[in-house]
Each structure stands twice: as C-alpha cells, then as structure tokens.
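can u do me a favor
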C-alpha cells in the first residue's frame, strides 16, 4: 500500500507502540480496542507519513500526533451502534454510492423547507423524485448578515437556531437513511467566520487562537504573497487580506473579509478540525462536502492553490476518518483547472467530486451548439480511478466559471480567453441572438474576467421566452433544460439536481433590495421554494409540468437501468458536430443533439460503436424500440438513450 522505505515502517511501528497505552485508556472495551487497532494498524503508516510531511519540522510533532490519535479514539468510542452498522456495511460494499439508484439533490434547508421539521415534511416529495443523496447546504450557526450563504461558519457543532437543532439534524439523518437517503453536509474547513469562538478569542488578543489563523503584524508578508494570489471575490471583497483594527493585524481572508482562513501549518488546527469533522460524522452525515479544498495550504512564493500540503491534509483526514467512521465519504469542491480538479480524486483522498468540467462544457455547448470541445475534454479528463466517481451537475448555488483548460480549447482551435469573453457576453444576454438571462458575478475590470449567475431555466432561455411570448423559444428552452439534465442523469457518476430546477424556477431579482445580499449576484439563483410552481408539476401545459414530468421519466429510466451504475463512459465521434455521443458500460448509447435543428447520424457510425444495436435498440426515455436499419434522425435538442442489450 505504501511506497515508504523499509526503515519507515519500523519507525511508524515504534511511534504507534508509544501511543498505544494512551489509546487503550481512551477506549473503554476490549472489543472497541480490537476493532479500533485493526483499522489503525492498517492505516497508521499513511497517517504517520502525512503527519511527518505536514509537521515533522516541529519539535512537538509526536506530541500532536499523540493528541490527534487520542481525539480519534474518543470519536470512535462515541460512534453510535447504528452508525457502526452502517460503517461495516459500507466497508464490505465500498461501491455503495456508485449504483444507478443514486440520484442526488441539493438545497438550502431554509429556502427549500424553512427549517428541519419542514424538511422532514418534504420527504414524500424527495422520494417522489427518487432522491437518494441529499446535500443540505451549510445549516450551521453563522453571522446574521455576513454569512456568505452559510459558508462563514461560527460553530461547526450548532445548527442555525432558525433552522433547528443538532439533535433534529441527527434524527433527520437517521430517518432519511432509513428511507434510503444519504445526507451530505458541508465541511467548510478552509475558514471560519469572524464570529467563531476561535476568532473571537483571537480578536481579544489570545495568542493561542491568533495562531489558529494566518495573521500578520504589517503588510510585508501580505505584500509578498498577494501578487501571486488569485482574487476570488475581486468585486465584493478585493484582495486576500483584511485589516482588523482591534488587534492591529492583517488576517488572511481568501474569500470575504469575515471568512478567516485557518492555519493548517499549526497542528492544533489540524486536530481541532479533525474533532469537528468527526463530530459531524457521528451525528450521521454520510458525506462531507469539503469546501474550497484548493486553498487550505499556503506556501510563500506560490499561488497558494492546489499545493502538495492540500493533498497531505486530505490523505491524513481520509485515513483518520476511516479508522473512526469508515462509512464516511469525502466530496471535493475544487473549482479549478481540470487537472487539479481530478488530482483530489483518489480513494485515499476524496472518493467523489463535483464535476465542474462537464458542467461548464454543457453550458458552452448550449451556447455554441457544438460539442467538439466538450467531447475532447471528456475523452481526456472523464475517466477516474476505481472507487471514485463524479457528482455531475448543471447548476449549483454558486456562479458558473468557464473552467475549461486553455489546452483543451486550443486543441480544437479555440482561443480560451476570447471564448470565455464570448460565453460571458452570451450568458449575460449581451450577445446578439442569446437566449440567456444571466448576471455577471465578480467582474474584475483588471483582468476583464467574470463568472455567471442565474438559474438553469433563465440561463437556458425560459425567462426570455416567457417575456417575449415566443412559443418556439419556449419549447426550445424547456428542451435545453431537459437535454443538459438528461446528460447529467446518464453520464457516469451521481447526478445532482439543484432543487427548484425540476420546476423550471426562474431568476429571483429580489435579492437586489436586500442590503446583505445585493452585492452578491449568486442570490439570483437561490430563490425560496415555490409552492405555486410545485402545484403545477403535474400540468404538462406549464413549463413547470413539462420539465418536471420529463425529468421524472428520465430519473425513473435511469434507476431501472443497471448500465447507468458506475462511471464507465466512452465518448465517440459520430461525425456530426452537434451530437454528443457516449456509451455507458458498453451497453447504452446516449446521443444528445445540442442544436435546435434536426440532425442525422449515420447508422454505420452508431453500429461501429455498439454492433448489438443492429438487432434493434430500445430508447429508454421514450420506452420504445428504435430501428437502426437506416440513418438516425434526432430532433432539435433531442436526447436518446439507446439500450443495446438484447431483449428476451
Ligand atoms: C465555495 O465556492 C462555496 O461553494 C461558496 O458558496 C463559498 O462562497 C466559498 O466556497 C467560500 O466558502 O469561489 O465562487 O475552487 O471556487 O471554493 C465560489 C474552489 C468559490 C472555489 C470555491 C468557492
């Protein structure tokens, strides 16, 4: 498992033997000791190696390792019997999250259902949709106004009192699990809010807690770092450091000035955050969405993103949680260069990750009507190591950034910079003929860069079509929504529905009147759940009903098709620049027409991908046979899932 030199394993054995008596004391029963040590002995070489990488330069490294393991033993001891049973089930079925049954959804608890009791009452709706994975966006205590939508956490152990209590969250996780729904919660581990207890103590001058963050007495270090750092929120929160007059110090703040970056160079921070992580795992979280992964480690002279230290932290956290809570998965949130997105996905770091590569290419293909760049990127960047899978999505609560690689663009003859400019203009509706109604997010006048906000439906053209009353455009926009969701539901990985999208929810401009939100256009696509839209979901003559019914049909077709399990997806050229084509598990051929016009694909091209199609294919969405004896016509924005498995 490890490529360490021989002496290293001896060292790690000695280190563990020295700590063993403390762990024996921390664990209460012999059976706990046996179970804990069985896992720890297997994972300790990794834990030891990562700890040395991170903190080996400190005289007190061993002391911190010892305290970390004692923390781990405590967490294991307090893990409930129910969760231990879940752990064992998942240890013997490590691919539990990769089946065709997996259908993800994401929401803000307060906006979707007001509070946790409200969310419980939405269980029937979630089951109607087939949801088996539910991401609850940050629902922890956070500042009243400056909360970055909950991503400024003031306490990892307290639920926002307006939403409920930790006990309610724990009960809900248990109840939803009994209904086959896994709960995903955010672990916002790069920073805390400036109202977190640690930050408050730091502001009172407590040196111990000041060392939890990255603080500077003057501008010399910030000035040395800053030229190489990317500004994440150049408009709403320029720069990466914020001055705090109370302590006369500059604090590292990658995001907003009230989000203080934690200092993982301090092993006490590593240990404290491990404790918070295990606390959440023990409340019943099945998956932790690791927020802002690329930024957690900093080194002078670098851009402080995606550094080796990030990988060491992830491997250490992964190995440690597999000792105390092996049922837990990590989901990476890294919206960076495709190469770096993928670098976090290994079974010993994050088993799952957002797929921002596919997401941004889908929106690109809708704008250009061409799939060259998407196909090229997917052919090179989709395949993953065994045991890992993508979380594929169309929209999230965040902005859309054009994160495609310039190299990928160049290899299909596109200039990345110019193309980003075009896409931005297109999606803010300033390009002639654009169907989209989006808003700029964090326009940077220096680099001319920006990202895009807007709901799926408004970006896909529904808002404009409703306003103009253009019936064709209305139908096109609905088909666009279904097309991109149809890809997400059939390509390898876990599909993720941004709740509200199933009801074709439009942009909500009311955030502009709220002082706490007006500066952040992402609020345009975070509207409260609309009961009116929901009541129209069965009426196919409305956009809500048209989208909802077709989406449901696709979800059901997905979950009864074993070929949609796993991530095995091969991408093909079918000699039509509008048709995105891929084969799932060797059995189901997906054809997606990104143009509004009818397209033809040569039967020969399809049969060369999967010869069984000659015996008669079955379209899983329409649930009807399709003949491939002649060339295949695919209507504008049409989508086919062709099952080539022979039928009895
Ligand atoms: C994440 O996003 C969250 O999803 C955002 O909602 C938060 O505001 C932010 O972190 C801070 O907690 O820049 O525009 O590569 O792209 O972490 C969204 C990762 C973001 C970043 C990502 C960040």
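np, heres the sequence
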């Amino acid at each position: 498992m490890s490529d360490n030199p021989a002496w290293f394993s001896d060292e790690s054995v000695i280190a563990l033997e020295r700590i063993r008596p403390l762990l024996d004391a921390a664990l209460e029963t012999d059976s706990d000791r046996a179970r804990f040590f069985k896992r720890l002995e297997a994972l300790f070489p990794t834990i030891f190696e990562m700890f040395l990488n991170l903190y080996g330069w400190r005289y007190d490294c061993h002391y911190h390792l010892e305290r970390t393991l004692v923390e781990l033993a405590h967490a294991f001891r307090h893990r409930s019997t129910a969760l231990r049973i879940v752990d064992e089930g998942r240890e013997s079925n490590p691919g539990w999250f990769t089946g065709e049954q997996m259908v993800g959804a994401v929401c803000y608890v307060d906006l979707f259902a007001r509070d946790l009791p409200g969310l419980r009452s939405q269980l029937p709706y979630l089951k109607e949709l087939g949801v088996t994975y539910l991401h609850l966006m940050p629902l922890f205590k956070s500042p009243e106004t400056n909360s970055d939508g909950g991503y400024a956490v003031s306490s990892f152990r307290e639920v926002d009192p307006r939403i409920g209590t930790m006990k309610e969250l724990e009960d809900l996780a248990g109840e939803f699990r009994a209904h086959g729904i896994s709960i995903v919660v955010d672990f916002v581990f790069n920073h805390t809010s400036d109202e977190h207890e640690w930050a408050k103590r730091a502001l009172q001058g407590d040196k111990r807690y000041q060392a939890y963050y990255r603080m500077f007495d003057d501008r010399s270090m910030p000035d040395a770092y800053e030229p190489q750092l990317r500004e994440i929120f150049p408009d709403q929160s320029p720069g990466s450091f914020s001055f705090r007059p109370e302590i006369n110090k500059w604090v590292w703040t990658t995001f907003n000035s009230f989000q203080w970056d934690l200092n993982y160079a301090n092993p006490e921070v590593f240990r404290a955050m491990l404790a918070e992580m295990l606390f959440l795992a023990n409340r019943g979280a099945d998956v932790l969405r690791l927020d802002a992964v690329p930024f957690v480690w900093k080194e002078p002279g670098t851009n402080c993103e995606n550094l080796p230290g990030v990988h060491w932290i992830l491997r250490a956290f992964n190995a440690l949680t597999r000792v105390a809570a092996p049922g837990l998965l990590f989901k990476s949130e890294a919206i960076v260069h495709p190469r770096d997105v993928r670098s976090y996905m290994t079974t010993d770091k994050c088993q799952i990750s957002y797929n921002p590569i596919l997401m941004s290419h889908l929106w690109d293909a809708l704008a250009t009507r061409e799939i060259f760049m998407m196909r090229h990127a997917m052919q090179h960047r989709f395949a993953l190591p065994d045991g890992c899978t993508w979380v594929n999505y169309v929209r999230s609560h965040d902005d859309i950034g054009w994160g495609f690689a310039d190299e990928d663009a160049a290899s299909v003859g596109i200039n990345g910079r110019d193309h980003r400019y075009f896409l931005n203009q297109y999606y803010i509706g300033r390009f002639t003929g654009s169907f989209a109604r989006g808003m700029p997010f964090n326009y940077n006048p220096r680099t001319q860069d920006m990202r895009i906000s807007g709901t799926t439906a408004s970006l896909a053209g529904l808002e404009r079509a409703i306003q103009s009353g253009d019936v064709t455009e209305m139908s096109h926009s609905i088909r666009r929504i279904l097309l991109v969701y149809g890809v997400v539901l059939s390509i390898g990985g876990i599909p993720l529905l941004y709740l509200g999208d199933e009801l074709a929810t439009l942009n909500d401009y009311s955030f502009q009147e709220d002082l706490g939100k007006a500066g952040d256009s992402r609020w345009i696509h975070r509207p409260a759940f609309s009961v009116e839209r929901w009541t129209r979901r069965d009426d196919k003559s409305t956009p809500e009903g048209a989208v909802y019914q077709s989406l449901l049909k696709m979800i059901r077709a997905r979950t009864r098709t074993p070929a949609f399990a796993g991530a095995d997806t091969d991408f093909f050229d079918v000699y039509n620049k509008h048709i995105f084509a891929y084969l799932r598990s060797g059995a189901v051929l997906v054809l997606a027409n990104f143009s509004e016009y009818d397209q033809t694909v040569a039967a020969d091209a399809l049969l060369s991908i999967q010869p069984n199609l000659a015996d008669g294919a079955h379209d899983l969405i329409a649930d009807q046979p399709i003949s491939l004896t002649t060339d295949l016509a695919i209507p504008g924005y049409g989508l086919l899932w062709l099952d080539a498995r022979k039928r009895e």
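The longest helix spans residues 30-55. hope that helps!!
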